[in-house]
Design goal:
Chains A, B: GO terms for molecular function: antiporter activity; ATP binding; voltage-gated chloride channel activity. Chains A, B: It is found in: Endosome membrane; Membrane. Chains A, B: It is a multi-pass membrane protein. Chains A, B: Belongs to the chloride channel (TC 2.A.49) family. 2 copies of one chain form a homodimer. Chain A has about 750 residues and is mostly helical. The first copy, chain A, contains 30 helices and 11 strands. In chain A, the strands form 4 sheets. Chain A has a 3-stranded mixed beta sheet. The first copy, chain A, has a 3-stranded mixed beta sheet with strand order 4-7-8. In chain A, helix 7 packs antiparallel against helix 16, helix 10 packs antiparallel against helix 12 and helix 15 runs parallel beside helix 25. The first copy, chain A, is elongated and about 100 Å long. The N terminus of chain A is likely disordered. Chains A and B meet through helix 3, helix 13, helix 14, helix 23 and helix 24 of A and helix 3, helix 13, helix 14, helix 23 and helix 24 of B.
Amino acid sequence: SPIFLLVSHESVLCFVPLGGCKADWRPSNSPKLIDLLDDTVPGIGTYEDFNTIDWVREKSKDRDRHREITNKSKHSTVALLFSISDAFSGWLLMLLIGLMSGALAGGIDIAAHWMTDLKEGVCLNGFWFNHEHCCWASNETTFQERDKCPQWKTWAELMVGVSEGSVNVLNHFMYVSWALLFAFLAVILVRAFAPYACGSGIPEIKTILSGFIIRGYLGKWTLIIKTITLVLAVSSGLSLGKEGPLVHVACCCANILCHFFTKYRRNEAKRREVLSAASAVGVSVAFGAPIGGVLFSLEEVSYYFPLKTLWRSFFAALVAAFTLRSINPFGNSRLVLFYVEFHTPWHLLELIPFVLLGIFGGLWGAFFIHANIAWCRLRKNTRLGHYPVIEVLVVTLLTALLAFPIEYTRMSSSELISELFNDCGLLDSSKLCGYTSNSGSTSGSVNATAANGLGARLAGPGLYTAMWQLALALVFKMLITVATFGIKVTDLDVFLKAKQNIRAQASKHFFFFLISTLGGVTRMTVSLVVIMFELTGGLEYIVPLMAATMTSKWVADALSRESIYEAHIRLNGYPFLEAKEEFRHKTLATDVMRPRQSDPPLSVLTQSGMSVEEVERLIADTTYSGFPVVISQQSQRLVGFVLRRDLVISLENARRHQEGVVSVSAVLFTECDPPASPSAPPAVKLHNILDLSPFTVTVHTPMEIVVDIFRKLGLRQCLVIQNGRLLGIITKKDILKHMAQMANRDPESILFN
Amino acid sequence: SPIFLLVSHESVLCFVPLGGCKADWRPSNSPKLIDLLDDTVPGIGTYEDFNTIDWVREKSKDRDRHREITNKSKHSTVALLFSISDAFSGWLLMLLIGLMSGALAGGIDIAAHWMTDLKEGVCLNGFWFNHEHCCWASNETTFQERDKCPQWKTWAELMVGVSEGSVNVLNHFMYVSWALLFAFLAVILVRAFAPYACGSGIPEIKTILSGFIIRGYLGKWTLIIKTITLVLAVSSGLSLGKEGPLVHVACCCANILCHFFTKYRRNEAKRREVLSAASAVGVSVAFGAPIGGVLFSLEEVSYYFPLKTLWRSFFAALVAAFTLRSINPFGNSRLVLFYVEFHTPWHLLELIPFVLLGIFGGLWGAFFIHANIAWCRLRKNTRLGHYPVIEVLVVTLLTALLAFPIEYTRMSSSELISELFNDCGLLDSSKLCGYTSNSGSTSGSVNATAANGLGARLAGPGLYTAMWQLALALVFKMLITVATFGIKVTDLDVFLKAKQNIRAQASKHFFFFLISTLGGVTRMTVSLVVIMFELTGGLEYIVPLMAATMTSKWVADALSRESIYEAHIRLNGYPFLEAKEEFRHKTLATDVMRPRQSDPPLSVLTQSGMSVEEVERLIADTTYSGFPVVISQQSQRLVGFVLRRDLVISLENARRHQEGVVSVSAVLFTECDPPASPSAPPAVKLHNILDLSPFTVTVHTPMEIVVDIFRKLGLRQCLVIQNGRLLGIITKKDILKHMAQMANRDPESILFN
């Protein structure tokens, strides 16, 4: 399934739980239920929901913590043991994430397999057996007809008692009913318990990894519901890729497990390193491709990916792959769903069709992104998006109705792919292998059937209206025609061997086309090639695969710069600072900083000389998330920076707990007290919440350098000075707005801080 | 050869051209000859040799250049075409690098193969045929004895005319003589023409990529000599890995090709991006592993590796692999030297020996690094290092003497490995395959021979004294005993099939041990696994391979934190800011900045009010490579930063070309002129060389953040301010010295700026 579904899984983004989660990102909308695990005691150094973290501060905090533990460890044995356990906790956490994600992925595979079969019939020996297991246990199964055994009853057989003829309608009805039930359950569960469980999850995870906070997005309810609905959605026959959801599931596991380790619970930056590794784990279990997973995390998802994270991801992906292999959901002792080998070496001239397929894939990928975004925008802005349940049910109904009649569309797409790609053996019962074909069909028509099947399959779910489906089916058929062009010029009826070769050739081209499309949609290159050869063992084909993915990326990039994930991030207005593209405009820090020339001057605090009341008034009058502290209003020489949240909490705390604090009490940011009259009320000392090393740039600093600093250091804000005088401030949001403006987009599309 | 040789190739570091290049890093020592290509017109914005570049400045320069081209392109068609060609020049450059490196690598492979055979005999049909080609052309070759044909004469046959008996001594003599001749030629060439062609090259390339300048290190003479000596050294039978030298060769190609593109010739940062890609190309052609190469560059060599470079590396590695495949040096239409498949799936319990082998490999790797560094230090500090030519000849002599008698040590290590790893086929003439074994040896003794052979082989060259060799041989034999333990508990003489399995088992363990050792020496993880499965096609073994390499890395890291490359970088005192390890000490910027409290105050320039004479005196009195510019000596408010080199050049230029400039002329760093008396001589305006946006930190900024900024932004220096007043400066060298001090090492070991 992965390949197919990766291509179309993005559809799910706008799809499973829909309207309810995209349009309403406000925290108030996420039910309290899912916040339980993520709630931390409000206090200094934490962040509001839907805000961006300060990487530098978080990393400093972690280093302080580490130093403290190291120092203590010199004095007592207990502390030493604690320090050692702390040092290993990262690896332990990785181990646990790998185990948990691997086990979940194995469970999902097994459950989805069973429920997919449940749509067709039930096992009399025990309803918990799937079709294959049911017939394994049977003594009456012959090798030729592995699929048929008396214990396995279709619904028609069970209810009417006959297995031939018109009862097929009954089977069809049951099939559609089950599919609708599964889909309905999935949508209802998501809506009721975990709106965040919707969609692919990768755009949000990418944003979270870049330093954004969405509480509950990786919570336990999301995990539970996402796991269940993934099984339901896959079983209902909807065409969705497991890799996005599995990355989300793995990240949820990681986030939940982080709560058992102080080091990671308390530190947003460290937690993000773990999440980076978890996204590698997700891909590792989705495809059985551990190295591909690591590269996926590096190339596609992660924002900050130091070598240490690389090694940890590698370890976690290894454990997860190993766990999955031990569970052995596919019963073949392999990590992967289908193990294909292209045994024939390739010729130089073959590069031409491969590159052509790359071009097609790139075009198709770019078109897909465009259409997907246009559709999402439509749903967001019109009434279309108001009926998510109905929408899902309609799509499921259409898919199920269309899928049942043809054998190839009915099988799960992983089965279909192995059917298409596996070499024909003598014991193979596949109809695609000429010699067991019972209908006297020619290879040509068999291929045509397969092509039709594929067309319908791929068309079914990805896109939501009949027109859209039709267009998709047409395009796909056209492309498959191109891909299978080799068949038509070859003499078809020579002998068996030739048929096999033809099939191999056609499936090879189809495979390259799928990969190129995937490359065009996601703009992955290295990771895609690695995943593909981990998936198929096609080591011989590295060079052509590289050529195809690279071409696809070039073509797609030429049409639009954004991958599907970035397009969705932008659609949702997340504050994501893209690291791929350089900022190339010749603007200076002075052009971007606030206040603008016409605005009132910057709101600053002075290090001494302000009263509690004055500070509180400043807080009430402004909405800034932080204030610079200067020596005096006249000199504007910078002392430090204080965050609004810290300031509010500290002042409240002082008012409540510190004796004698009144509105006229002085607020001091200095370490030493200035001389004060003995009759004055005690001062509120806030030196401890003052950041004495805020980042500064000068007014002349080109924005390209500022953007670079923000990206590389993960800043949240930066102060602008000239000749030692504080002049303004630049926040991440200012930068994103400026970038949007420079790219002629609406700067107001950036919604969050 | 790669596996073996990678393990021991580091030896070459201290080895091929030696003393002459490590101890004397001073520019004066590198002959003028090799500087031709690297000479740029001295001018503003260039760097001195053995200095560190400023990444931020270089990248700004490139963006300015890009903007200028884009702006011009709107006005004329020619400029538009130029702009398009400029945009594609990066990819074109990658294409050229791939083609050139692939061609060179192919040539090296072919030449080395021929010259290795030349040591044993010559082809009568034409001396330019190697043994294999000679016998291919012959009609008298039977399939069973492919190796023997009348056209191929050993030296003894040619000179004495008989082929049996005691003439073996003559063959042995010729073998040794050729080996000595090759080795002598190699050393002489390096000494005479390109001292920089010595050693592996990877530590220097790593340093260059981090922003250091070593002129001539990647010049055309280095390229020519390195290519020739690589062939000679490999042919002489010395145990050296091709991958280090090939990375160096690819980087030379890249550097030379950069000179044809203004964009890269003029910009040190852009050139380093190209070099990162080139090091991927080097590994790609060394192992035929393009993806492994990209990951090697990412994990091991590169300092700054944005996604754009990832894609370009990927493309260049692809082209290089493709070129190599087209040249087809191994005559098997594959990219790799040996294509091995472990067909048998592995069992869970097998993980235990694999992990044990990982531990052994890690221990051995750490020991190897330690011994290698100790030896290099000894050679550097004692008279031992004064006789490089003799040293090389002695090692070659010993290797050749020991290698000749045993068939397995005589064959090149790539042949040996394929001999060991390939499955036994019916047509296989290898003695290791039981059924064609003409001596009635049992499988056990065959394995013993192989083990002996391996022991001798690996012992031969890596280390330079007999004692060392002995120890190495002992350790290796012990380890091989452990590794082949499985053989001894199995019943050996059951039947043929069993023998094959045993060999597969033993070679599997040996393979894992080699990989773990390599992991222990270089601390590669992901890249190593990818290289290995690109090399062998052992896709089934991803999980155990990952487990072994990860274990090996852990064990080796526990013993010492540095890989062999980093250890050599430190040994040579290069200014390399390691990105792997976090700086964890609680020092502040104020503890590291210059001037220290007892020192005289910081030498600064004022933005106006200084005369040419004063500035020149300041330059003469100090050796700093740059000066901060402040508003006035009293306020110490920072205006900007000016580099010594730029200042010197500008003042000289003004003195020479600007009329009326005398010693009392004012030097102005302001944009607008201050009021001056009409009688005053014309001022020298240096506003254009002033960097108005120097990086600043405050005195309170923790050093961990400062280190992070230096690493991530590639800074060269950073100014320290407090409340708007300039207090000091921190340079990269200060940071490296501070880090050395904190790690209880000699801070004076950091030699360069």
